[in-house]
Amino acid sequence: MTALTGTLRILRWGLRRDRIRILLWGLGVAATTAATVPAVRDAYPDAAARIARAELSRTPGTVVMTGPFFGAGAPGSAHDPGVGAVVVNELGVFLLVAVAVMSILAAVRHTRADEEAGRTELVRALPTGRAAPATAAMLLVALMNALLGAVIAGCLAVTGLDVVGSAAFGASCLVTGLAFGALALCAAQLTGHSRSASGIGMAVLGALFLARAVGDVDDPSGGSWLSWLSPIAWAQQIRVFDDLRLWPLGLGAGLAVVALVVAAVLAGRRDLGEGLLPGRRGRAAAPGRLRSPAGMAMRLLWPSAVAWTVSLLVLGAVFGGLAGAIEDLVAESPDIARWLGGSKTLLESYAGLVAAYLAAAVTALAVQMVLRLRDEEMTGRIEHQIAMGASRTGVMGGWLGVTSVGLVLALLGSAVGLGAGMTAAMEDRAWLWRLIGATLGYLPAVLAVMALAAALVGLVPRASRAGWAMVGWTAVVVFFGELLDIPDAAADISPVALTRMVPAEASSVAVLGGLSASAVVLSAVGLWGFRRRNLTGA
């Protein structure tokens, strides 16, 4: 028996477990990619429109979200970037981040999470090599990324873009996914818990995204040295549909190989089920506050809420600080400013759009915190609480109460960061209070998403992960709603899209009241279902 004995059997098992996830990722990516190309053709039908789009891409806010616009030509030039370059600039970073997230979650789920649940120990009891589970996990990640890369390339080529450029962009998504999947395997060796390993992987992704963003803002034409620290920038630097060059993909492939070697070395230095980083010893006796359901929820959820709040505070401040460059754009290109409605409208639209971005991020926190209740149920800890006298209403009600406080804190952090950044950039304190009010206006929408997840946990716990569908739809609507010309009836399914973008638009009391009522009703439905159903495990 070799170290790889049983790899193919474990791979087939992993493919069977993830068949629905793979299908959903493929359909989501295919639908988004295929719809973007005709939408770009409609939005930018001629060279003049594409040149104007290229000029707008030089603003810091756009550079942070999309990276350098390769193919735009020199500032003020009449160079037509072409449809393909516009599509990649609009869609590229979104797809690269999506495949990175998918790879991190898949790598951790099939390694550390299986060890934590005891599945790897059962598998290793059979004739299975020591390296087989991790190898099968990386092969699964590679197959998933190859499928998504082929889907992306196929959708771009079928909609009329250059075949070579389409294939190159698909390959860049594949290599980026492999790099982050390999980094996640390293993270899985460090900690004994899958949640911590996923957190480390996501933190690395966030740090590398921030490095790319800061580097690209420093040099919008092609990125500074900071950009070259990030695999996301390497994928962009192939300059697809412009001056195509494939050698940056070698950096991503090299990082994946190095990370796999490091993961193998780290795996050889630990015992099965253990992480290299020492875990903290718990107290001999729990403090009194942990004996209540709300106290336990506070203990489990508070670290995530604080981390998200700090991250959103920093992100909001970065976006707010970029507002000063909008005035520079207005001064340099008064025609574009008039086309967009003037500098005041431009600033208010920018602030409203960033507030919506930050609110969309908080919906992800809402679903994550509620689904943690389902995770606790599957591990049996909720059953222990109820056996000690806690009521089911108290367990879920306490959980939702702590989650609500955490969401308010996260929204407030993003609001303070955005308002402080805008205030510093525009030297006008009025922006701080206006943007705190504008961002907190999304609280009913965020609570409605939280309540939807709670209703799923209460009524159909095995399908509770479907709550992420609302987060995904919200992201699509907020980021691509105008480009894809999504009908209002479909866009308004998302509570964030339904909320008016203050200060660019007037707030609607009816919308805020309706969302608040929906949050109350859905929470009540979740509590009702949680009281009536049996507690279930994995």
From TrEMBL:
TM segment ranges: 20-40, 91-110, 131-161, 167-190, 197-215, 246-267, 300-326, 350-373, 394-419, 431-459, 466-486, 506-530
Keyword check for Iron: no
Entry keywords, A to Z: Membrane, Transmembrane, Transmembrane helix
Coarse class of the protein's main subcellular location: membrane
Localization (cell): Membrane
Recorded GO MF terms: ABC-type transporter activity
InterPro entries found in the cross-reference section: ABC2_TM
Annotated ABC-2 type transporter transmembrane domain residues: 89-237
Membrane protein topology class: Multi-pass membrane protein
Record carries keyword Magnesium: no
GO cellular component, one term: membrane
Protein name listed in UniProt: ABC-2 type transporter transmembrane domain-containing protein
